Amino acid sequence: MPDRLTLLRQSLRALNLTAFLVSSPSHLRYLFGFTGSNGIGLITSNQSFFVTDWRYREQAEQEVHDAEVLSAFRDLFAALKERNLLRVGERLGYESPHLNCAMFAHLRKTFPQIGLTGTQFVVEKIAARKSPEEIDAIRRAIAISARVWDEVLPLIKPGVKESEIAAEMVYRGRKLGADREAFEPIVASGWRSALPHGVSSHKVIQPGDMVLIDFGFVVDGYPSDITRTIAAGQPDKRLKHAYEVVRQANALALARIRPGYKGLEFDMVVRDYMISQGLGEAFNHSLGHGLGIGLHSWPRLGPTSEDQIPVGAVVTIEPGVYLPGVGGVRIEDDVLVTESGGELLTPIPRDLICVA
Amino acid sequence: MPDRLTLLRQSLRALNLTAFLVSSPSHLRYLFGFTGSNGIGLITSNQSFFVTDWRYREQAEQEVHDAEVLSAFRDLFAALKERNLLRVGERLGYESPHLNCAMFAHLRKTFPQIGLTGTQFVVEKIAARKSPEEIDAIRRAIAISARVWDEVLPLIKPGVKESEIAAEMVYRGRKLGADREAFEPIVASGWRSALPHGVSSHKVIQPGDMVLIDFGFVVDGYPSDITRTIAAGQPDKRLKHAYEVVRQANALALARIRPGYKGLEFDMVVRDYMISQGLGEAFNHSLGHGLGIGLHSWPRLGPTSEDQIPVGAVVTIEPGVYLPGVGGVRIEDDVLVTESGGELLTPIPRDLICVA
Q1: Which domain-ending residue is among A127, A143, A160?
Q2: Inter-chain residue contact A56 with B102, CB threshold 8 Å
Q3: Same domain for A160 and A108?
Q4: B193/B187 Cα distance (integer angstroms)
Q5: Does A105 sit within 8 Å of B100, measured CB to CB?
Q6: Are residues A110 and A166 in the same domain?
C-alpha cells in the first residue's frame, strides 16, 4: 500500500487542489504522529509542514514524522506566511467539518489571494482502509474491552449507581493497559436506557431495569466501540421483545456486511426488518459508523449514506430500540470488512443476561 | 442578577443583532440545560428554540428549559426554516470559534437572505460572572480533587507508571461523586514533565524525576483545574531552582489578582518575574484562563489578552517552567475574583514534596 501522504497527494490531484490544510487533531496524529491538541499541517505537491504553538514545540519535535516542524508564538498561519509556503494561484483544500469559522476567517485574511476549497472526508477515506498494524491495535482495544466486560458484569445489579459502573469500567480498562476511554461510557438504566446517548448519571439501578452499556477503549490511538444491554431482573415484556428484535437485527447486519455496497444499503436492510417488527420509529439512529482514528468516522452506515464500504474498513453495527419512559436496547459490535464479507471482532456474547 | 437569556439579549442589542445562533455544546447546557452533544439554539428578541436530531429528542424534551424544543431527522437548520423563524432582514450572530465551516456553509445555503455576523465570547462573557450556585459547584469539584490528591500522593514513587497514577485519579474522583474528569489528566515524569500538555504515557517514574500532575473533575457541569509537581527523589538542582521560582510566581499572581484589570497585566507581572530569574523563555504558555463551563474560558490571562477580569470570575493561575530534556514544574490554582482581590480556592499545599 502506498504511504499516507502519497495517497493524500493522489486525492488532491483528483480534486484539482495544489495543497491541503489539515486541522483535525486525529488527522494530524494519523499523518504525522502528533498527539497534542493544537496544530495544523500543510501538504503541498512535494513538501509537508507541521505547525504548532509554543506550548507544543518540544512535543512536536519529538513526535512528528514526515513533516518539517514549524512553531509559532500563537498564530499558526503566520508561520506559513513567513516561509512563503502558499503563493498566488495556489488552490488550497481545507477540512470543512474540522475548521471553525474563526480560524477560517483568519486563514482568509492571512492569504487573501489563495483559492480556498472546503472538502469533506479526504483523509477519512484514506484512513478507512486499515493496515494490519491498525487492525491489530483495534483488536487489542477490543480484547481489553472484553476483559473489562467480564470483570464488571458481576457488579451490575439493583442498588448500584450507573456512575459506579462507569467508574469501574474506566479504572479497569486503564489498569489493563488502555491509553484511555474511547469516549465517556454510557451506562443508562431503566427509563434512561431509552436515551440512546445518555452517558451515565448517579441514578441507582432498580429491579427490572434494562441497563444499556456503551463503552470502548483506545490502544495506540485506535478505539473499540461496543454496546451490550442486560436486564437487572425480569424486564417488561415489550423490552424482552425489543431485545429479540435487536439481536436479530444485529445478526442480520453482520450477515449482510460486504465491501462495495453503500452505507444506506446495510442500514435499509436492518431498518426494513425493524419496521416489519413494528419498531421502525423506535430505531431512531443510524445502523453504524466507521471505526478508527476520530472514533466516528467514514464510512457512515445510515439511511442517507452514499459512502461505499471498502475492504479493510472496520465498522460498527449497532441497531437499537428505544421506548420512551420504558427503556431501550442496543447491541453494538465491531466488524472488519473483508473481501468475502464481515469478520466479527467482538467476542462478547449477545444472549440476554438477567442478573439479580 | 438578570437571567441568562435577558443578559444575552442585552448583548445582542449592543452588537446590533436581532437573533443569535448557539452552537457550542457547553453554551447549550449553560442556557438550556441540554447535556447531549448535538444541537443548536436560536434566540430572537422574544423567543428561544432548541433544535436537536432524532437521537436526542427524548433527552431534549426531558432536559431543556427556557426554550421550545424542535427536533429534526438530521438537518437542524431545516427545522428552523420550516417554522419560518428567520426572515429577510434578520441580522443573525453566530459563534465563530464554535461553528465549523461545513455547518456554516449549510447555514448560508439554508438562509441565503439573512445577514450573518461572526461573534466571539458573547456567551462566555455572560458566563464568566458566576452565581453563588456555580461557585459552589466549582468548590465541590475542587474538594473532590483535593481528596483525590491526598489519596493518590502515597502512590507516586519510582517504579510506578504515569498511566497507573492517572487510572487511580480517574477512579477515585468518580467514586467520590464527580461526574467525570474535567480533562484527560496529565501525569508527566522526568523529561516528559518538560512537555506542558503531555497527558500521561506508560513511562515508569524514575528516581529523581519531577512528576507533573494536572487534573480536575466536573461536578454538576463545573470543573476544577489544578496542577502540582512533586519530586520522586532528589531532583536536578536546575529543577529545584525552577520550583522555587514557579512557587514565587504562583504567589505573586495570587497576590495581584483583582477585578478591572486586563488579562495581559497579570500575565506580564509574572512573566517579568520569570525573566528576572532567567526563565522567561522557559515559561512558554499563558498565565491562566477563566474556569467554568467549557473549561478553558473567558477571561484569558495571557500576554496578549485585553479581557477585563470581572468580579465573580474564577480563573486559574498556572505559571510553569520547562527545561527540554531535563524536566518541568507547574503550580496551578483556582482563584475566585472578588471585589477586594482573589480568593484562593485550592487547599492543596504548594511546598516541594520529595517522595522516595
Answers
A1: A127
A2: no
A3: no
A4: 8
A5: no
A6: no
- Kindly report the CATH number assigned to the domain that includes residue A84: 3.40.350.10
**CB nearest B100 (choices: A98, A163, A184):** A98
Which one of A37, A38, A58 would you mutate to disrupt binding with B, by most B Cβ within 10 Å of its Cβ?
Answer: A58
Chain B interface mutation, best of A73, A101, A283, highest count of B Cβ atoms under 10 Å: A101
B222 and B266 share a domain? yes
ipTM: 0.95
Q: Which residue of B has its CA nearest to A182?
A: B184
Q: Rounded CA gap, A102 and B101, in Å?
A: 9
Supply A167's cell numbers: 467508574
List pLDDT tens digits, range A301-329.
Answer: 999 999 999 999 999 999 999 999 999 99
Whether A2 shows a pLDDT value over 90: the answer reads no
DSSP conformation class of B202:
S
Q: Cβ separation of B197 and A96 shorter than 8 Å?
A: no
Chain B residues with CB under 8 Å of A165 CB are none
Give the distance from residue B339's alpha carbon to the nearest chain A alpha carbon, in angstroms.
32
The confidence score (pLDDT) of residue B5 equals: 98
Q: Tens digit of pLDDT for each residue in B209-248?
A: 999 999 999 999 999 999 999 999 999 999 999 999 999 9
**Residue A147 sits in which domain range?**
129-355
Among A56, A103, A171, beta carbon nearest to B197: A56
Residues of B in contact with A168 (CB under 8 A): 171
pLDDT digits (tens, 9 = 90+) for A210-226: 999 999 999 999 999 99
Tens-place pLDDT, residues B257-280: 999 999 999 999 999 999 999 999
Percent with pLDDT over 90 in chain A: 95
The reply to whether residue A195 touches residue B304, judged by beta carbons under 8 angstroms, is no
Residues A135 and A55 in one domain: no
- Are B101 and A120 an interchain contact pair (Cβ–Cβ within 8 Å)? no
Beta carbons within 8 Å of B229's beta carbon, 6+ residues apart: B193, B210, B211, B212, B213, B243, B246, B328, B329, B330, B331
Residues of A in contact with B163 (CB under 8 A): 174, 177, 179
Of B100, B194, B199, the CB nearest to A58: B194
Question: If 0-12 CB within 10 Å is exposed, 13-18 middle and 19+ buried, where does residue B17 land?
Answer: buried
Q: How far is CA A128 from CA A4, A250, B68, in A?
A: 11, 22, 39
For A101, which of B55, B58, B99 is closest by C-beta distance?
B99
Statement to judge: residues B206 and B308 lie in one domain = yes
* Distance between CA atoms of residues A159 and A205, nearest Å: 5
Asked if A101 and B96 come within 8 Å (Cβ–Cβ), the reply is yes
State the DSSP code for B133: H
Q: Of A103, A104, A109, A101, whose CA–CA distance to B96 is shortest? A: A101
B136 in the same domain as B97:
no
CB A283 within 8 A of CB A274: yes
pLDDT at B199: 87
* CB pair distance less than 8 Å for B120 and A102: yes
Final residue belonging to a domain, choices B107, B127, B147: B127
Considering the domain architecture, whether residues A223 and A138 belong to the same structural domain is answered as yes
Q: For chain B, what is the domain count?
A: 2
**In whole angstroms, what separates CA A16 from the centre of its chain?**
29
Instruction: Say whether both A57 and A135 belong to one domain.
Output: no
Ranges in chain B, pLDDT < 50: none
Answer whether residue A121 shows pLDDT above 80. Answer: yes
Determine, for residues A171 and B166 on separate chains, whether the beta-carbon distance falls below 8 Å: no
**Strand A19-22 relative to strand A91-95, pairing:** parallel
Rounded to a whole number of angstroms, the distance between the first and last alpha carbons of chain B is 52
